[in-house]
Automatic annotation (TrEMBL):
Protein name (Swiss-Prot/TrEMBL): Succinate--CoA ligase [ADP-forming] subunit alpha
InterPro entries: Cit_synth/succinyl-CoA_lig_AS (IPR017440), Citrt_syn/SCS-alpha_CS (IPR033847), CoA-bd (IPR003781), CoA_lig_alpha (IPR005810), NAD(P)-bd_dom_sf (IPR036291), SUCC_ACL_C (IPR005811), Succinyl-CoA_synth-like (IPR016102)
E.C. number(s) listed in UniProt: 6.2.1.5
Keyword Nucleotide-binding: yes
The organism of origin for this protein: Glycomyces paridis
Gene that encodes it: sucD
Coiled coil stretches, renumbered: none
Pathway: Carbohydrate metabolism; tricarboxylic acid cycle; succinate from succinyl-CoA (ligase route): step 1/1
Active site positions: 251 (tele-phosphohistidine intermediate)
Function field: Succinyl-CoA synthetase functions in the citric acid cycle (TCA), coupling the hydrolysis of succinyl-CoA to the synthesis of either ATP or GTP and thus represents the only step of substrate-level phosphorylation in the TCA. The alpha subunit of the enzyme binds the substrates coenzyme A and phosphate, while succinate binding and nucleotide specificity is provided by the beta subunit.
GO MF: nucleotide binding; succinate-CoA ligase (ADP-forming) activity; succinate-CoA ligase (GDP-forming) activity
HAMAP family attached to this UniProt entry: Succ_CoA_alpha
Enzyme type, top EC level: ligase
Amino acid sequence: MAIFLNENSKVIVQGMTGSEGMKHTRRMLKAGTEIVGGVNPRKAGTKVDVDGVSLPVFASVQEAISETGANASVVFVPPAFSKAAVIEAIDAEIELVIVITEGIPVHDSVTFWNYAESKGNKTRIVGPNCPGIASPGKSNAGITPADITGSGPIGLVSKSGTLTYQLMYELRDIGFSTSVGIGGDPVIGTTHIDCLKAFEEDPETKAIVMIGEIGGDAEERAAEYIKNHVTKPVVGYIAGFTAPEGKTMGHAGAIISGSAGTADSKKEALEAAGVKVGKTPSETARLMREVVENL
């Protein structure tokens, strides 16, 4: 099985006709994703040929759903137009919207996240500023490389795209049920906790890798959730052990406030919840190998 995205997912691409949208639509198709069309009001009614696959372009997400039965969307829309694109997807009540776009103003993210809540959270938002979701052998929605790993028993949730790819590659011989890149912005939709809950409930996920980073308290809250609700083994990694104190590093969400938000404080919280925490990505992979060998 997989979480959030599987072989039955019918995916549309908002912004498919742009350069990034087209590049990654081509890559997702090669990965076996069932892409059923794109959305661009200015090009509605046309068709786009992608390596021999003819994909219709719709005027709206609602029209795409009505015509194709789409239940997931990947957003490759420039930052200035992303809020409107996500709100359109929420209004259409699509089940899943994955927002790849980087550089969306935080106020816009707050707006569409609150809007989703006001509509009863019928649409799961992943991102923004994320690599998307990959369920190897089933579907791949976003920018995660499809050829770096196979299917297997590990679930992965990560703030960092690059570290997602590294862990997937280092553990490629074991494989993954689903990898969810949740994004590193201060305001995101799906959280570590949401993914931990889903992996805990997925019978084919046997162990979980959780990648966090300095700043905020998301990892501390995840540690509390693991302690109280997760029975499967969890291995963690926190990016930023060597970051200078007081510096804002990398992602917009990586802001340290006092002692909270440091790599050490997150490591302590996770270890107190029974999570094995690696000091490097490679050590984290080694710890997961030990866990899988003992399952």
